[in-house]
């Protein structure tokens, strides 16, 4: 393995500093409720508005959107919802007999109250709301509380707001950051407490989700965007360079990585990245992202390239190979896989239907991304009768005696006596 370009070590705000700030925010919201939320909205976003987005505000906001934009958002919701519906069909209830008189099974139950966080970010991302909200709607959530920063003329960007509404959000609040996460986890006078919080965000949002986990569920903790292109000598350097920059422009800390079995193709791609960047706006995060976080790695073989991919467990893994489908069975750790040159990550970012809320920072080693299954519970049940009672009770009595658990033994013995 050889590096043509390696990421730089950058200093960020210390984890302890972020942890302490978030802890204070959550503590204040617990004590002060709405007043605490508004204090931090003023402090971090200079927002003094009412936190709830009213039906009147939504209606006026919708009027500012063209029909073309609305149709784009509706198409996103439709495709994300259809994919979620197909996934939900794979999650089926079950009930079987496991020995005479022993019936066990499970039900698929929706999480009733969902908190959806949609970051404001540098750009109004039309897909962000539908990606988080639509699967919850498909899963059967009764209440979907959505929060997004009031960083567009004192409110939520109209396209983001329309996406939240059309996807099925029942309550929408113009608040962001750790204060939004704390409010949804704890509940305030205005903001309902939820059962699970999902959606991406900056390091303060991620830390807030970590701190409230246990009080509520969370989907996953995701950082800045990541992409890894695994390529060979058949790849198109122009396309590869564009695919790297498409993710690099998300955030200055986004990671765009090229792993190539061809040194010549890697060098060509590196040149094309630099060429493309000359035409990017000076304010694009892609400049800092590529300069500081971008990497180009030469693998001695496809096998080594695959090993690098599995070790990095990247968020988006895109295969530009002569036989991309053939490499798939050997790849095990990724947030989402993109097979062949034309399967652009951008399609998933925007509208294909798979979810773009995915694990980063090697989280793909132990979890997948946000999906309809994130919003349901698999709850088991059992019914024991007849010969099943005698069989299980006899075992339970013996085991409880060995373990010294008198109450367990008593409960099992009563069933034996009742069947005697």
TrEMBL record:
One MF term in the entry's GO annotations: metal ion binding
Gene Ontology terms: cellular component: cytosol
Classification via InterPro entries: Ald_DH/histidinol_DH, Histidinol_DH_CS, Histidinol_DH_monofunct, Hstdl_DH
Pfam family, one: Histidinol_dh
Cofactor: Zn(2+)
Binding site for Zn(2+): 247, 250, 349, 408
Keywords from the UniProt entry: Metal-binding, NAD, Oxidoreductase, Zinc
Signal peptide location: none
Positions with a binding annotation for NAD(+): 117, 179, 202
Binding positions (substrate): 225, 247, 250, 316, 349, 403, 408
Top-level division of the source organism's lineage: Bacteria
Entry annotation: catalytic residues: 315 (proton acceptor), 316 (proton acceptor)
Gene Ontology biological-process entries: L-histidine biosynthetic process
Co-factor binding details: Binds 1 zinc ion per subunit.
Family statement: Belongs to the histidinol dehydrogenase family.
Name this protein carries in UniProt: Histidinol dehydrogenase
Organism: Alkalicoccus daliensis
